[in-house]
Amino acid sequence: MRTRDVITSVALPVAAAVAGSVASARGARSAWYRELRKPPFQPPAEVFPVVWTALYASSIGASLAAQREMRGAEKDSYQRALAVNMALNAGWCWTFFAFRRQGAAVAVAGALAASTWGLAARSGAARPGAGAALVPYAAWTTFATVLTEAIRRRNRER
Fold it and tell me: Whole-prediction pTM value?
């Protein structure tokens, strides 16, 4: 395994987690966020760090496993797709919490979900277990898109 494989598999998710946490931590404690009307299916705040930690860990493992089976252009393309995915991941946090752009956050969340399903498919083609490991991440980002849109609809005037 090349150093680049480890960097993309580990450093990109860690960087996304850190960048997203910076925006989310401040934003989730803000009066603006506390005052938003949220749908009844919004999980409790304590769920998010637990879920995201598990999802980042599974992303790392799946990426490492999938890249072991990839070569050349396929691997390069996967690494670019992973970089885009993690940029979208952190970007949602900044778009929603820091910039407070709910409509844009819905678009970013949708792009993230599509990107994550794509990564799951690519990973699964290389190594089926790696693709399966990314399904919870893809499902969660799909749920996040629905949740973000529900919040946007309930708070149109904000």
Answer: 0.95
Pick from 99, 103, 129, 124: nearest CA to 23:
99
CB 25 within 8 A of CB 97: no
Q: Please compute, for residue 25, the number of CA atoms within 13 A of its CA located in the half-sphere on the CB side.
A: 7
pLDDT tens track for 41-89: 999 999 999 999 999 999 999 999 999 999 999 999 999 999 999 999 9
Give 4-7's long-range contacts (Cβ < 8 A, gap of 24+): 4/79, 5/64, 5/67, 5/68, 5/75, 5/79, 6/64
DSSP 32-93: HHHHS---TTPPPTTHHHHHHHHHHHHHHHHHHHHHHH--HHHHHHHHHHHHHHHHHHHHHH
